[in-house]
Amino acid sequence: MNRQSPRLTFGVLAVGAGVYALLQSLITPALPIVQEEMHTTQSTVTWVMTAYLLSASVFTPILGRVGDLVGKKRTLVAALVALLVGCLVAALAPNITVLIVARVIQGIAGALFPLSFGIIRDEFPPARVSGGISNMSAVIAVGSGLGMVLAGPIVGAFNYRWLFWLPVIVVAGTVLLAHRYVPESPSRSEGSVDWFSSVLLSGWLVALLLPVSQASQWGWASTKVLGLLAVAVVLFAAWAFNESRSRNPLIDLRVMRLPAVWTTNTAALLFGGGMYAVWAFLPGFVQMPSSAGYGFGSSVTGAGLLMLPMVAAMFVAGVLGGRLAGRFPAKAQLVAGALLGAVACALLAARHGTPADVAIAAGVFGLGIGLAFASMSNLIVQAVPAAQTGAATGMNANIRTIGGSMGAALMTGLVTGHLQADGRPAESGYTHGFALLAAFCLAAALAALLVPTRRPAAPAPVEGSAVERSGLPREAVGG
Predict the structure, then answer these.
(1) Where are the transmembrane segments (predicted)?
(2) Does residue 39 come out as left (phi exceeding 0), alpha (psi in the -120 to 50 range) or beta?
(3) Contact of 140 with 21, CB cutoff 8 Å
């Protein structure tokens, strides 16, 4: 493989990460159809999404670290194979249990995001790394939103199983291309995987995300929710204690404490709360029949078409963000993206009487997502050592997902807590929810303002110095 062909490498990475991102939202509009055809309940069918979320949260940072240790290409191909198997099992699933298991297998491929960022950092010329990461972030953002647009036409033309058969075809080809054309990155961490730490990390992530995602059904004050949250706190403390003393930490906590990392992760948590909640609830809002006093009675396909301005704006903003990085640095892009998200949610709360109102707000939000996605990834990659890229970007994606689960759970409580006499959600539940999401995005912008301004590179450290041996940026150790 000629290592001077970053375009080909990027193309293969983009297809794999894009298909995985697509599967995040592609099945959501079809869940009522899945529920009907598999003769299951609404509470059970929601596990099609919950299982995917939990699996991705566990495997993303772990396989990101494995990639840093044993090779990013090797781990990337394994993640793609898992995605292929998961899609094939889902397409053939005879019942809801098998479908949920298939979604767990698909979630393993969440590691495609940090692995792709790490390969771009290793393989691209330094001057093109920022643009490559911005373009990859745009692909991921567009893929995540495009599922809402494509689900209706695919199900209408075929059936819901083709939501998995089509990815099977694409991913099978991507596995072969990745094996043939993606080079093995030369940058490796030393050491081994701390599997005890991996178990603790998996435990606190599941114990946190499970009650948050199910709180609307179980009740925030229920024993299950409170008990699991308490378990999450205990396991998190045990994980942090073990990581701080491990010779081979899964995630170097010194890296997580870097000012540029923790501030970016805080912004990711808050912005993720707004982003995922809008993706989850805006299609349902426009599908509400006008007899409810709001909504447009849109079909699944019609709701997807109203999301098109968001998807297009995501792509444009993500691509332009990388090209403008010299004059419009990542920190400024993150602040701008979060502020655009706040404006969009405020617009949805105040003006949603016509499809044009919703389309405009969706487009503004898409600009915000495109800028924020690209800038968060770039800020993390710029702040951490090359050997920590996979684990650090994996945790950033996880933190964004945790924020999304919290935002969606709070939005669910507001929407389902205000019902009309006919059992439909009241308009006030949505307006209050969108106002809350605007506050989330505004808080993300404030957190982004705390991200340190990147200083010019310091002179290379003296060989064998403490800074060099640490493997951390100089500011992490007081240099």
Answers:
(1) 45-64, 76-94, 100-120, 132-156, 162-181, 193-212, 218-241, 262-282, 302-322, 334-352, 358-381, 402-421, 433-451
(2) left
(3) yes
